[in-house]
Design a protein that fits this description.
Elements: E1 5-11, E2 14-21, E3 29-36, E4 49-55, H1 58-61, H2 65-77, H3 80-90
Antiparallel strand pairs: 1-2, 2-3, 3-4
């Protein structure tokens, strides 16, 4: 288990804090946490927070935690459901 690495990025105008831990709890899994400023909705979470375990080494395959998160969000942002939620967030809804 290694010490956590915490970084900040901006994705699609949203400030994010990313915390990455290799081999969380001495397992073969790494751990990523994403926290959006003001708990802004993201394509991977409706609460602005996401905790995700993944097999060891995948994050490095993407170039590190920042690149992994950007790629993950970009991929999920192509989803039609995300596009609807994003558009709805721009408008006030009465329902």
């Amino acid at each position: 288990m290694s010490a956590p690495i915490t970084t900040r990025i901006v994705w699609d105008g949203i400030a994010l804090e990313i915390t990455y831990r290799k081999r969380r709890w001495k397992s073969d899994f790494d751990h990523i946490e994403i926290l959006a400023e003001d708990r802004h909705v993201l394509p991977v979470t409706e609460t602005g927070y996401r905790s995700h375990f993944l097999p060891e080494g995948i994050v490095e395959d993407y170039g590190g935690p920042e690149d992994f998160v950007r790629t993950w969000l970009d991929h999920e942002a192509k989803n039609a459901d995300w596009q609807r939620r994003k558009d709805a967030a721009k408008q006030m809804s009465l329902f």
